[in-house]
Amino acid sequence: MLNIINKEYLKNQNLQKRSRIYNYSNSFYFTTLIIFLILLTFLPSFFLFGCKKEENKYETFTVARGNIVTQVTSTGNVYSSEEKKYSVLTSAKVIDILQKGDSFKKDDILIKIDDSKVRLYISQAEQNLKLAEESINIAKINYQSALDSNHVAIQLAESSNNLAEITVQNAFQALDSANSLGMANIEAANQAIKNANYYLEKVKDSAFATDLTEAQAETNVSTAEKALEQAKKSAKVQSVQAESAYNQALANQSITYWNNLNNLEKAQTQIKLMAKNIAQSQIQLELAKINLELAKLDLDNFFITAPFDGFVKDVSFSVGETASPGVPAISIVSSDFIIKSDINETDIVKIKVGQEVEFTLDAYPDKVFYGKVDKISPVSKNTAGIITFEVTIKPEKEAFEFLQYGFSVNVTITVSKNENVLYVPIQAVYEENGKNFVDVLKDENNIIKTEVITGASDYDYIEIKSGLSEGNIIILTTK
């Protein structure tokens, strides 16, 4: 516009020059030149302000719908969800060990040390176990033998007791028979004497008896008396013999009884001893098993396996060196990565477990990754007077292939999200007497002070819950 005005002006000047009489003095020319320069300076502005329509005196904003997202930003680093250090439990030569930076899977061997000595102990424990098993087998055989001996002793005792009982009964019957026979013989002898005396008396009373007949009768009496004495002696001898045999049978029965009882008790004692021997052998067997298990447990002390997938952070020994207890032999970290970020105390109250997180890596600045707040430390940190709290973030699996231990991270935590709400710039809202207001522009000269109820806000916009409608024009500032 300024160029157009200058061209028109010069054109007019040229037309005027053709009709003028060039007889002006130098002073008039100088005055005219100054006036020209002044007009040249102010005329464009005057022309523009005179021709341009008056602009709006206010900076405005049209109320719209959208999302109010409140976020907290911070920085952090990539860490592992687990980090462990392991030491060996006994001094031994290192047979195998992973190196720094090596990756591994769960249950892979991290370090193995010389276990030859403990394997000898295991072999010895296995031999002791075999001996214990043999001992218990022998004890069981002896126990069965004791049971068999006890059974034989019971059978022999029963048989010998029965035999002794029969012998006693036979001896008693023999004694009874001897006594009966002796009494019968004595009675017979007494009867013979009576008969001989009766015959003698008859002979003496007989008128026909002779001296010879009487002498024979007297001889018969004498013979009968002698037979009685002989019968008594014989009966006594037989009775004594039979009684002695009976007493001997009783004595033998008693001896047999006590011998059998003794044998049975010995057999029972042997059974008990064999049972105890089995119990002792069983204890020895269990001890042998325990010693073997202990030796095998010691074997586990000669290697360390990985509790998770991960990689080696540091090692302290090489193959062939002697590892010692108390010195960290190997340090490992899990490949299950997490992000840790220190959040200022003014923002930590907004952070909740489960909130969505966006993050970028300095190594991949053009990629955006996602995760969620997993843990908030209840213990604060004080760094140069600045109070922060450590927040742990669990990345989504899609980010894991890009994560490396120690990477720098830029974190954005979404603390609230209000979708499809009315919103205005935060500077448009002002407070009076505990209430919030905005200035609504109805037309160029009509401004209405309107009370509003606000909601969530971010650093730029604030939610309007009531008081405004979509499309309302509000004043931000006066120009």
Structure description:
Strand 17 and strand 18 form a beta hairpin. Helix content is 48%, strand content 32%. The chain is α+β, with helices and mostly antiparallel strands. The strands form 4 sheets. A 6-stranded antiparallel barrel has the order 2-11-14-13-12-15. The chain has 5 helices and 20 strands.
Global mean pLDDT: 85
Shape: rod-shaped
Number of helices: 5
Strand order of the largest sheet: 2-11-14-13-12-15
Which runs of at least 5 residues are low in confidence (pLDDT < 50)?
1-33, 42-54
Keywords:
disordered N terminus, rod-shaped, 479 residues, single chain, alpha+beta, six-stranded antiparallel beta barrel, four-stranded antiparallel β-sheet
Layout of secondary structure:
Layout: H1 2-19, H2 26-51, E1 58-62, E2 64-80, E3 83-86, E4 92-97, E5 103-104, E6 109-113, H3 116-205, H4 211-300, E7 303-305, E8 310-315, E9 322-323, E10 330-334, E11 337-344, H5 345-348, E12 356-361, E13 364-383, E14 386-395, E15 408-425, E16 430-432, E17 435-443, E18 446-457, E19 461-466, E20 473-478
Antiparallel strand pairs: 1-20, 2-11, 2-15, 3-10, 4-6, 4-9, 5-8, 6-7, 8-10, 11-14, 12-13, 12-15, 13-14, 15-19, 16-17, 17-18, 18-19
Explain briefly what this protein structure is:
The protein is an alpha+beta fold and 479 residues long. It has helices at residues 2-19, 26-51, 116-205, 211-300, 345-348, and strands at 58-62, 64-80, 83-86, 92-97, 103-104, 109-113, 303-305, 310-315, 322-323, 330-334, 337-344, 356-361, 364-383, 386-395, 408-425, 430-432, 435-443, 446-457, 461-466, 473-478.
